[in-house]
Write a structure and sequence with these properties.
The protein is built from 26 helices and 15 strands. The protein has 626 residues and is of the alpha/beta class. Helix 11 packs across helix 13. The longest helix has 18 residues. The radius of gyration is 27 Å and the shape is globular.
């Protein structure tokens, strides 16, 4: 990775300016100097989001336009290329300082106006500001926008504020202060106990307390241990860990180092999927910079603490998010789950047989805040059994899709309607899928459910890594279940028969139901198969694969029955059910249906229009146009 990215690193950062820090005092002195010089409050500055979503919509073209306009006007403008700022639906987004004005959907042609109004005139350019609707008043300040109002950032604390490719930015905003505190005034047991007291539950989905996992890893015999970060984020629509690795890689490194210090480990591995090229690039650069500063390597900050980090890229198999399959992939083998015991934290269970501690990216990113501010601060946020915050990727049929971080205990209604802005087109909310393909669909009756590990589990879903897909009245619940099950079935490693054969049989039944060939007893067969797969699968991914089907049957059984008994799909999605016809009593012969049909299925006679069922593909084009 380092060889491939050498030129890119040199373009982004001048390593000649780097000086190795050989004592804790020098890190403190550097932070004090950088905090005064790096982000001066009166400096004209544009913080432009360069996360994956905003980059795809043209953020670098906006940056080029700012640089050209700055050169023309002779006004010195500092441009900070930040990680994801959250509001992906409205990208490219940016913030102008010191006026603190937030802009959305910024195009290069808007830049001269922004320079003229916000940078030279210290007032907002109204056409680029956020609005709830066309008639509503624009909102210039980022924290006043409904999307950001109820958020609380811990894991994403630096996303949107710093350049992830500049270690000095991270140090200037307090980075590595927790490591400094740990090495100067805390023993390894102190760090471990602080994390344990904070009750930091794993943000990867299972919710197992990180402190207990760390203690188990530390208690394993032997001198060699690994600290492993799971960045294999495979859920459809999920991009929480990716955004941290892209936008704040040093927070991940610092969290891993604190874990290594607590459990007496010397080696770290970040496992990240190859489909995240920007994350791989920024992580490689962050490791190189930390090594140059003396924050990674031997005798860190002049102490006896030694720690090195390597990156391992995965090929993108969903099953490699499971811990034992991930270890197999790190070792260069095919990603097959392994039976337990031994667990990863025990000899013979971890990487190359050595005890290993595995947490996901978001979990490690929370650790520096806990160590620096204390467990009491973390416990003051969220709920008693699920303290802190959680990052969600809010996607689907919601107005404001993007990355959100909210306190545990906030309701689904607040996330979807207050932060997300409600359903697209103001249509009726049907359900929300949490926990990815291993989670479940939660109906409208549970919209006021507090979002935490225990509450979601009580309604048949799960927290998962943080994917949240909103479904409206135009979605067929059978089709949604079929989509998620087809994903897990195709991603099954095939090692154990319950998962390999069971998910295939369930998918075949769902296809039969969706095509209008469902039979009485199919619902019961799905439930029976699902329960057997849950009990018999080797790994957690297999045992949770039936969840989308089981929860949709639990809450939307009538839609399954309509598909089977009435051959009817209320969302008009399943192409094998029902047929389109024209109500002649209501038709006023506008002809839009005929114009919209690409297959020539709409025929015209002297008196009316009708649909030839032999040509109709049920594409809904005529229905939409009418």
């Amino acid at each position: 990775v380092r060889g491939r990215l050498r030129q890119a690193r040199n373009d982004r950062f001048d390593f000649k300016e780097m000086k190795k820090l050989d004592s804790i005092g020098k890190l403190s002195e550097l932070r004090e100097a950088l905090s005064k010089e790096t982000f001066k409050p009166d400096t004209l500055r544009a913080r432009v989001c360069c996360g994956t979503a905003c980059t795809a919509t043209g953020s670098y073209k906006v940056i080029d336009a700012f640089q050209q306009e700055s050169s023309k006007s002779g006004v010195e403008l500092e441009i900070v290329k930040t990680g994801c700022q959250g509001l992906c639906q409205k990208g490219p987004v940016l913030k102008i300082e010191p006026a603190d004005i937030f802009y959305q959907r910024t195009k290069p042609v808007n830049v001269p106006w922004i320079m003229s109004y916000s940078i030279l005139g210290n007032m907002p350019y109204r056409q680029g500001l956020y609005r709830d609707s066309f008639l509503s008043e624009p909102v210039p300040i980022m924290t006043d926008i409904p999307f950001y109002k109820k958020q609380k950032r811990i894991a994403l604390r630096n996303n949107g504020n710093i350049d992830p490719c500049n270690i000095n930015h991270y140090i200037a905003v307090g980075g590595y202060a927790a490591l400094e505190k740990a090495l100067s005034s805390m023993t390894p047991d102190d760090v471990l106990n602080e994390v344990d007291k904070a009750n930091l539950r794993g943000r990867g989905g299972a919710g197992f307390p990180a402190g207990k996992k760390w203690k188990h890893s530390k208690g394993a015999p032997g001198d060699i241990r690994f600290v492993i970060a799971n960045g294999d984020e495979g859920d459809p629509g999920a991009f929480m860990d990716r955004s941290i690795m892209e936008g704040d890689p040093h927070s991940l490194l610092e969290g891993m180092m604190l874990c290594a210090y607590a459990i007496n480990a010397k080696y770290g591995i970040i496992y990240v999927r190859h489909e995240y090229p920007l994350a791989v690039k920024n992580l490689g650069l962050a490791i190189k910079q930390a090594e140059e500063k003396g924050l990674i390597g031997k005798n860190i900050l002049g102490t006896n603490f030694c720690f090195t980090v390597d990156i391992r890229e995965g090929a993108g198999a969903f099953v490699c998010g499971e811990s034992t399959a991930l270890i197999a992939s790190i070792e260069g083998e095919r990603g097959f789950p392994r039976p337990r015991p031994p667990r990863l934290s025990e000899p013979g269970g971890g990487a190359w047989g050595y005890p290993s501690n595995l947490n996901n990216i978001e979990t490690y990113a929370c650790v520096p805040v806990i160590v620096e501010k204390g467990s009491s601060y973390f416990l003051s946020i969220g709920t008693q059994n699920s303290p802190g915050t959680k990052v969600f990727a809010l996607t689907g049929k919601v107005k404001n899709t993007g990355l959100v971080e909210v306190p545990m205990g906030i309701t689904l209604r607040e996330i979807i309607f207050d932060i997300g802005g409600g359903i697209l087109g103001d249509k009726k909310f049907k359900a929300v899928q949490t926990g990815g393909p291993s989670g479940g669909c939660i109906p409208a009756e549970h919209l006021d459910l507090p979002v935490d590990f225990d509450s979601l589990a009580s309604v048949g879903s799960m927290m998962g890594s943080g994917g949240m897909v909103v479904i409206d009245e135009d979605n067929c619940i059978v089709d949604v279940a079929k989509f998620f099950l087809s994903f897990t079935q195709s991603e099954s490693c095939g090692k154990c028969p319950p998962c390999r054969i069971g998910t295939y049989q369930m998918l075949e039944i769902l296809k039969r139901i969706a095509s209008g060939k469902g039979e009485e007893g199919d619902i019961e067969r799905l439930e029976k198969l699902g329960k057997k797969i849950v009990k018999g699968s080797l790994c957690g991914l297999g045992s949770s694969a039936p969840n989308p089907v089981l929860t949709t049957i639990r809450y939307f059984r009538e839609e399954y029955e309509e598909h089977i008994r009435d051959k009817y799909c209320r969302a008009k999605v399943c192409s094998g059910l029902g047929m389109f016809r024209i109500e002649h009593d209501e038709c006023f012969l506008c002809g839009l249906c005929k114009q919209a049909c690409a297959y020539g299925a709409v025929k015209e006679t002297r008196k009316n229009f009708f649909i030839d069922q032999d040509y109709c593909t049920k594409c809904k084009a005529c229905y939409t146009a009418c």
